Amino acid sequence: MASTAQPQQVNIADLDIQQLAEVRRQLEEELSHLTNSFAQLKQAQSKFKQCVDNVQEIKPKNTGTTILVPLTNSLYVPGKLSDLEHVIVDVGTGYYVKKTREEARKYYSSKVEYIRSNLESLSETIQKKQENVNYLINVMQAKIGEQSQSPAQASTSNP
């Protein structure tokens, strides 16, 4: 018979200070990773918002306008706008798709919205992890306080 291993729940108050310190370290590592992920998602969202803005800047009055076309992150060549109805959209992993301006705007707007919803759920997760860390710190402080009082009480009861 196959059994599914479920995580075992342990009461934090039953752990000793060394175990609590290890749990705290793990929680802080997770919190750091989640915070970094949040920052990366915010950066991606900002790039997609910029793409929406850039697509909206292409207007019929700009026909024939000289622009700088990026070949790499630091190399540009001059070019002229000829087809104002279509743009090339980077859809990831080196693939590009020709879309109308409206299709491109919708595509990038949907990406912004998708990332926004992920940011919301990630923010909730970060908040819960932070609450767990704070609770753990309170338990650790209480245990350290108990340990520091125990020797003091023992010395006062033995004359």
Commentary on this structure:
- The protein is α+β, with helices and mostly antiparallel strands and 159 residues long.
- The protein is built from 2 helices and 4 strands.
- The chain has helices at 17-57, 101-157, and strands spanning 66-70, 76-80, 86-92, 95-100.
- A two-stranded antiparallel ribbon has the order 1-2.
Task: Summarize the topology.
Layout lengths: L16 H41 L8 E5 L5 E5 L5 E7 L2 E6 H57 L2
Name some characteristics of this structure.
two-stranded antiparallel sheet, 159 residues, rod-shaped, alpha+beta, 2 helices
Percent helix range = 55-70%
| Number of DSSP helical runs | 2
Radius of gyration over all CA atoms, rounded: 28 Å
Q: Which blocks of ≥5 consecutive residues have pLDDT under 50?
A: none
Distance from first to last alpha carbon: 62 Å
Q: Largest sheet, described in full?
A: 2 strands, antiparallel
Tell me the number of strands.
Answer: 4
As laid out across the biggest beta sheet, the strand order is 1-2
Order of helices and strands: HEEEEH
The dominant shape is rod-shaped
Mean pLDDT: 88
What structural class is derived from the secondary structure elements?
alpha+beta
Strand fraction equals 5-15%
